[in-house]
Amino acid sequence: MALKEQLIASIKKAMQGEMDSVNLYQNAADKSSDTEVKDFFLQRREEERLHYNYLLDYYQQLTNDIQPDDISAKLKQENLEKSIFSDSFVRRIGEDQALFSAISTALLLEKDAIDHYRKCEQETDILTLKSFFRLLTQWEMKHYEELADIQKASE
Fold this sequence. Notes:
Layout: H1 3-31, H2 35-63, H3 72-76, H4 87-95, H5 97-123, H6 127-153
Helix pairs in contact: 1-2, 1-5, 5-6
């Protein structure tokens, strides 16, 4: 497979992973009647939807032989600092089996995304995409660390 086709296939795989995360977070939000918990899952859903949209833009640019846009400045504006969760928030997640399971599943999806974006960064020679994949890796690592903290604290 040529490099361009390999990159397009990698982006399509990443898009599927992001959409899986969007659906997971939406389902978790739908299962919660707790405003703070619902807002947490909806915020994560929107971040994953944003990732999907960036990937879709790159997919369209690559399939149409357009030089990929550099969106790293826009991505760098996103807050990569870890969130702080209250004890009551963590307790409410831990007390709801469906939400706790959603956290566990989300951890797997985030880990998968981290591994995939690292691989994508290594496989492309396009500097714009290298930077993009590096930033997505950092973003997914933030999600992973937050979810791991929630899971550990709610056990």
